[in-house]
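Data availability (excerpt). The following record was deposited with the supplementary files.
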Amino acid sequence: MHPYDLIADCDNCAALCCIAPSFDRSEDFAFDKAASIACPQLTADCRCAIHAERLARGFSGCVIYDCYGAGPSVTRAFVGVADSRAERNEAFLIVRVVHELLWQLNEVAKLVPASRADVAAEVSRALTGLDAIARAPVLSASTVDLPAHEHAARMALRRVGEALGGRRLGVRTLPVLPRPATSRAPAAVTR
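Predicted structure:
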């Protein structure tokens, strides 16, 4: 998978991040929204009616959200597919997780100490499995055994953290990695 495939591109997305996921009223979201229901702030042209005011209106979760390129990928795959809204939304939720894990694994692969070939191999196996999902037709996303791949990826991430001197037993072993600077902003920022 190419790194640019993991970058949000709101101009080529049907606002799937504003439709497919659910969210609960919290400090990140000002109201509840059910899965597969469009956010009431979403306009007919797939834009946010309160984009400039999201933070002030209680939507910090939208400000920090990133689909890692899943939105445009799924949107392209479902163009012209009749009666596919439910399948499209399900595919988005799966592909979004796959893309985020691919991004994380690609980043931590750069950090694996040269002396830890075993850890590098584990990261490579996890990347290969996720890359196969990402390259498969998006229309088949619902047939993916996502929990198994997600578990393998999270274990590989943990092993890298341990190889770098992090702690074990459920304590987060890696810091949050910053996104590289790109010419395009994440999905939540450009709506």
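Summary of structural features: Residues 169-176, 182-191 have pLDDT under 50 and may be disordered.
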